[in-house]
Amino acid sequence: MLLTRLLNACHRFPGFVYEGARLDEAAKTIEVQLRPRRGSKPCCSGCGQCASSYDQLPERRFEFIPIWGFAVLLRYRMRRVRCEACGVKVEQVPWAMGKHTLTRAYMLYLAHWARKLSWQETARSFHTSWEKVCQAVEYVVQWGLEHRQLGPIRAVGVDEIQYGRGHTYLTLVYQIESGCVRLLWVGKDRTIESFEKFFTMIGKELAEKIEFVCSDMWKPYLKLIAKHCTHALNILDRFHVVAKMNLALDDVRAAEARRMVQDGYEPVLKKSRWCLLKRPENLTDNQRVKLRDVLRYNLASVRAYLLKEAFQDFWNYDSPTWAGKFLDQWTSQVMRSRIEPMKKFARTIRIHRELLLNYFRARKAFSSGVIEGLNNKAKVTMRKAYGFRTFSMIEIALYHALGKLPEPKLAHDFY
Ligand SMILES: [Zn+2]
């Protein structure tokens, strides 16, 4: 079977003809000649209208999907058109866009694999460069962002993840309702100015129709959610509340352990970190023994630990009223404990009392599990995407992996 026949079966364009293929064994390439069909008119790349031919440019090569280890190149001499509206312009060809040297089909193909493999692995598997994989993903993501449908949006989750070195953050907004879980937006930093851009993107109408927003206690987030999502219930994410309390508990333990060493006491708190932070049911046998040992002592760390464990009951309530009563009792108990980091946590909880109770008002429909899962995926994407240094690269990789973006359709499925 001739290669041109194969191409006509999967990659055929009415105004163009495949003229023949040549195998170069040394260079491991197959070069396929393309020419305009006789009598067909070129189309202007400026406006898409057909126009009369002006002249022809030197030959260009376009990379097509490789076959059996051979690179496939389409060779074509672009025509220029004399367009009434745009003047003299290069023609528009259906297999590629602009200055891209990769064909549309190949870009979709690479982008498809770049979602399953790392970009580096994709480049290696198809004998191409990391930069070309990157171009392919960029094209697919840009197309997807232009063609995606944003609304209606019922529930969103806002979270931050760290990237690069030092304290640089990304703000991520996910749509988290059943049936539609996807990344909606990525922003640099976690400031009011950056988060405001998300609301500019979705517009006032969509923002006001959002019913639930899950977030952590970061002030700029809370402020803008209240400002824009005027009809939404802002729910504080359980995961973040627990993480904040664990931070307080860990402060208590670390300071106390240091003090005990300084004062020459037996180092009972040594290696106790995870025994205290983990839930009892998740402890290993060794940790369980260690915990039992530590709990015999009258230490601030032990009292803080017991307070933390007592707080677990909070999440079991169904009624916001009773959950609120529990919260008040628990915080006043902590305020009497004389353990400063825990008291600080309790004060934070008091300030955000209403937002915490929203979790019960929303009937626990939006727990942090979904957001946590998405965040883990985002972190994996960033790790796999090793080689991304700039924000715009990370942005593209994240949209590609988590955005569930629509893709341009081809006449033939290549994968
Ligand atoms: Zn034109």
Structure description:
The protein has 415 residues and is α/β, with parallel strands linked by helices. It has 4 domains: 1-96, no CATH class; 102-147; 155-236 and 368-402, Ribonuclease H-like superfamily/Ribonuclease H (Nucleotidyltransferase, domain 5); 238-361. It is 46% helix and 20% strand. The protein contains 15 helices and 10 strands. The strands form 2 sheets. Strands 1, 2, 3, 4 and 5 form a 5-stranded mixed beta sheet that branches. Strands 8-7-6-9-10 form a 5-stranded mixed beta sheet, sandwiched between helices. Residues 44, 46-47, 49, 83, 85-86, 89 line the site of zinc ion (ZN).
List the helices and strands and how they pair.
Layout: H1 3-10, E1 16-24, E2 29-36, E3 52-67, E4 70-83, E5 87-90, H2 104-116, H3 119-125, H4 130-147, E6 155-162, E7 169-177, E8 180-188, H5 192-209, E9 212-215, H6 219-228, E10 233-236, H7 238-262, H8 273-277, H9 285-294, H10 300-311, H11 320-335, H12 340-351, H13 353-361, H14 369-384, H15 391-402
Parallel strand pairs: 2-4, 6-9, 9-10
Antiparallel strand pairs: 1-2, 3-4, 4-5, 6-7, 7-8
Helix pairs in contact: 2-3, 2-4, 3-4, 4-15, 5-6, 7-10, 7-12, 11-12, 11-13, 14-15
Residues 44, 46-47, 49, 83, 85-86, 89 line the site of zinc ion.
